[in-house]
Design a protein that fits this description.
Blueprint: H1 10-22, H2 26-39, H3 44-51, H4 55-68, H5 87-99, H6 102-105, H7 116-127, H8 134-143, E1 146-149, H9 160-179, E2 183-193, E3 202-205, E4 221-228, E5 234-239, H10 244-257, E6 262-267, H11 276-285, E7 288-292, H12 302-315, H13 323-336, E8 342-343, E9 346-347
Parallel strand pairs: 2-6, 6-7
Antiparallel strand pairs: 1-3, 2-4, 4-5, 8-9
Length: 350
């Protein structure tokens, strides 16, 4: 038996232990174990039996490890990492991207445009492969000669003079409410979360550009959101739909949150905001003052920007199948986050 005096520093022992227990490469784990057993004085027969290596080979591995570090036990035969999708599978996906819309590819997809979320869902369903990084999906789009676009909204009926007049009249009221310690300012809006939700990026063949109509069709789950302009806190609730009774019930919840304060409530002129149940609640409450946003001017509503941030963090580029789980996740994110916002040129958040 040849002498086995310690050769490694404590840090090297710790590195080997970490490699032995955490690496997914069986050969690397076995080499690390062999060096550790040798270093700790295990019997020769146990080392050979456990690792399958001859003792001379274990001494050589340890010697190399002392000189080279972790590289000595890594698999030198490793080449380019194996791609999850085979070449024929990638080529098939590229052909589909170039010839079919998601709706034409599979009836579960309603969209006319490809998104990262839909592509990821399609690849997982067909090949049981899910990439960890969106970059892998971007590369597939680029192989298909796609580029991405973010659809914009144009409100042709927006009246700029009306909007400017509204801002001039509203700003002093907001300033006055901000100075009032017994008043709060809430900007309200509703949104609809769909199984086929809106997207941050859609992918199209180079040279093509999206034409997407803004749809107000009501389906799936609704969310009521109130942004406290004074502190950036959000209050959001999931509902089945939007109507005056639900709106009244939501206002009752708001009043429980702010039991004594005067509420300056900014919202649009949706029909359910003007229904009898809502107007009677506001009249009976006596401490709610309403300011309606101008027509066709959603971008001036701070709550719209909360929706955008929430979509970016939670639902963009994600194909949603479980609408309730997705909506609950969305609402939870809103209610635990703060959304500082500069409203009408006023830095409102304290």
């Amino acid at each position: 038996m040849r002498p086995r005096k310690p050769q490694l520093a404590p840090a090297q022992i710790k590195e080997l232990q970490k490699t032995a227990h955490q690496t997914k490469d069986a050969d690397e784990s076995r080499r690390a174990q062999a060096i550790l057993m040798l270093e700790l004085g295990s019997p020769e027969k146990d080392i050979v039996s456990f690792t399958g290596y001859h003792l001379d080979h274990v001494f050589r591995i340890r010697s190399q490890y002392r000189k080279e570090g972790a590289g000595a036990i890594q698999d030198k035969r490793k080449g380019k990492p194996r791609e999850l999708l085979a070449k024929k599978e990638r080529e098939s996906i590229v052909r589909i991207l170039g010839t079919k819309t998601p709706r034409e590819t599979d009836s579960r997809y309603e969209s006319e445009y490809w998104t990262t979320g839909i592509l990821g869902d399609y690849i997982f369903r067909k090949y049981a492969v899910r990439y960890k990084s969106k970059t892998s999906y971007y590369l597939i789009f680029r192989r298909a000669e796609f580029t991405y676009h973010k659809p914009g909204r144009v409100y042709h009926e927006r009246n700029e003079e009306e909007v400017e007049q509204w801002k001039n009249e509203t700003k002093p009221r907001i300033q006055s409410a901000l100075r009032n310690k017994n008043a709060i300012i809430l900007a309200e809006d509703e949104m609809i979360l769909k199984t086929q939700t809106t997207t941050q990026k859609i992918w199209l063949k180079q040279g093509e550009y999206p034409k997407i109509e803004v749809s107000h069709k009501r389906e799936n789950r609704s969310i009521y959101g109130f942004l406290n302009i004074g502190n950036g806190r959000e209050h959001a609730w999931k509902t089945e739909r939007q109507n005056m009774e639900i709106t009244k019930n939501i206002l009752e919840r708001i009043r429980k949150i702010y039991p004594t304060q005067k509420i300056l409530l900014l919202w649009d002129s949706a029909g359910w905001h003007k229904g009898r149940a809502v107007t009677e609640f506001i009249k009976q409450d006596g401490r709610v003052e309403i300011i309606h946003f101008p027509r066709y001017d959603p971008e001036d509503n701070p709550q719209e920007h909360v929706w955008k941030q929430g979509r970016s963090e939670i639902t963009h580029n994600r194909f949603i199948e479980d609408i309730d789980a997705a909506t609950d996740e969305f609402v939870a994110y809103l209610n635990k986050s703060k959304f500082p916002y500069e409203f009408l040129g006023l830095h409102c958040v304290s």
